[in-house]
Write a structure and sequence with these properties.
The complex is a heterodimer of chains A (426) and B (319).
Chain A lengths: L1 E11 L4 E10 L2 E6 L10 E4 L4 E4 L1 E6 L12 H11 L1 E6 L10 H10 L6 E4 L15 H6 L15 H13 L3 E4 L4 H4 L4 E2 L2 H6 L3 E2 L2 H17 L2 E4 L8 H9 L4 E6 H5 L21 H13 L4 E3 L7 H4 L16 H10 L5 H16 L14 E11 L18 E11 L2 E4 L4
Parallel strand pairs in A: 1-4, 1-5, 6-7, 7-8, 9-12, 10-11, 12-13, 13-14
Antiparallel strand pairs in A: 1-2, 2-3, 5-15, 15-16, 16-17
Helix pairs in contact in A: 4-7
Chain B lengths: L15 H18 L13 E6 L5 H12 L3 E6 L11 H10 L4 E6 L4 H6 L5 E7 L5 H15 L6 E5 L6 H12 L3 E5 L15 E3 L2 H5 L4 E4 L15 H8 L3 H4 L7 E3 L12 H5 L6 H30 L5
Parallel strand pairs in B: 1-2, 1-3, 3-4, 5-6, 5-8, 6-7, 8-9
Helix pairs in contact in B: 1-5, 1-11, 2-11, 5-6, 5-11
Chain lengths: 426, 319
Amino acid sequence: MDLIFRNARLIDPEAQTDALGSLRVTDGVIAGRGAPEEPAPEGATVIDAQGRALAPGLIDWGVKIGEPGERHKESFRSAGLAAAAAGVTTIIARPDTTPPLDTPEALEFVARRAADAPVNIRHMAALTKGREGREMVEIGFLTDLGAVAFTDGVRVVRDSKLMSRCMTYARGLDALIMGHPQDPGLTHGAVATSGKFASLYGIPAVSPMAEVMGLDRDLALVAMTRGRYHADQITVAASLPALIRAREAGLDVTAGISIHHLTLNEFDVGDYRTFFRFTPPLRSEDDRLSMVQAVAEGLIDTIASFHTPQDEESKRLPFEAAAPGAVGLQTLLPAALRLYHQGGLSLPQLFRAMSLNPARRLRLPGGRLSEGAPADLILFDPDAPFVLDRFALLSKSKNTPFDGARMQGRVLGTWVAGTPVFGDLA
Amino acid sequence: MSFRARHLLGIDHLKPDEITELLDLAQDYAALNRRTVKHSDALAGMTLINMFFENSTRTQASFELAGKRLGADVMNMAVSQSSVKKGETLIDTALTLNAMQPDLLVVRHPQSGAVNLLAEKVNCAVINAGDGRHEHPTQALLDALTIRRAKGRLHRLTIAICGDIAHSRVARSNLILLGKMENRIRLIGPATLMPAGVGDMGVELFEDMREGLKGVDVVMMLRLQKERMDGGFIPSEREYFHRFGLDAEKLALAAPDAIVMHPGPMNRGVEIDGTLADDINRSVIQDQVEMGVAVRMAALDLLARNLRASRGRTAVGEP
């Protein structure tokens, strides 16, 4: 089974290049690259990309799927279909389910259920039993079963001694811990970033310093234990110096951010619009711009959707009472392309943060256009305009902050290991 | 007529001429309220529902009286004790009430923005009687009317708002209203009770009450909630009264004819000295309560006029 893409704009996040060429796939693996008009091998399926962009499929780190517990909000099937349509070839699923994914048995269950999805699904496991912050999970068994990282999600492990033991134990297994760097005392009850906007609207708010404090604690623990650590979302400029110091000290630390914090700011909440409630809350425009810059410089490693399906009833409530989070699988690429069209980030930079770096950090084989990598690919037109209609999304939940927004970027085809999972090109 | 709003959700949405129009009408109702026969037919045949998701005696009584004096059928619902306990959502409660065809809905809710949300779902006029720490527009309007009557004007005054600004919807609405009418505003209180970013709102901040009160025309005290007194925001009641309680000695620093206001209910000896609160030469606290009814009558009347006008435009076959 051979496949060749000709006249494709190849977005290579490893080489940081964006140039016309062709790409060959053999038996689900990338076999090589050549000139744009490279002759097709005998019997190969030929796809004429007509100058559209061909890139490694997105690896979306931190997707909430409602199985087990909330299948009415999202199932592996619905999330997988949304991912395929969105060019996401690998979903990194979150463990903050009901009950949490904290035992090998639970992991085996979701791994079976994940077979419903047309894209790759990898699982993170909880860091502590029940996500209660008291006892660590069986990191060894869970690692053996394929858990790619350990996290309690947005629930901070308050007990620093326990957190340090988790890091030390995980280090012995070379397991990655994903933290949520926020000071739990300061953030308690807060649903906005403190400042003039939150004060005028009377919304309980927290200073950006809560993130700095949370990050400082976690980085101190990393320095102490030498564990592998990833900060799930770094969203304010004040956090960056600590991150730089940690890197300079040679700590094994990476950081991510959600696409929403790169494309929206605190004022978007407007008249208490609950689809704009996030954890952490949206930040100032200055912070947003600093974060775009940090991604461009590679200081922030990964961008993800933090896809969080919520049903209508969870959102049709006063702002404080509404559930946080937004669906994001199908808006990840078009929202990221806003940053490209505005000139803040190149396509290779975007795919470094959305494909290559998650793959490297989670030790997955995808995220690259190089020979020998799995043919997890997307072909897309970065310029095609559209107006987003939330009811057209394939997720079971429709809670997107981009409803009615003018966006650009259409996925023409998605391939997982060389097999088409979306589009009608081949 | 310049007052065009469909709902009264906050001061933020009002223009200065709308505020003036409402206060002028309230001034007329204040006169009516001092007569023996206090009745108008402005709301005759209309239904007013008071829906309070948070306990209130004074505000609810004030709205009830305002509605009755204008001839409306008034119903009070203490929602905190009923369906919400059974798990009904805010929107469902609103839709249920809406189906009973009220014309005016007065709502208080403990969460900011809840009244805005509710107003989107009903087709009657909605008055915000306080939402979380967001706004309490009729309180700011009654304060404005009280100031205008006592001082003869509502502009170019120096007004001190003292106490728990951070958790106060009264402070927010007053800040916006008095700012729109071009007054100088000083906020006085401990930093733990000041909202973030307030320094950018064109006000002066004081942590020293004596300094802040110098030469002011109006001293507006705020209520300190009991639950904030236990060491979380301030160390103790007695230290708070010492530093931020209003007494004759601190008031002596204000302008000689300065008036003292308080939205009630008062904590005597915590934020205000009892004798001062009762001093009829300085305290206008009872006038505030009186103006409260008049302002609410004016608000109900104006919203009812707009409601009738909009129904006249859309309804077919109505007389």
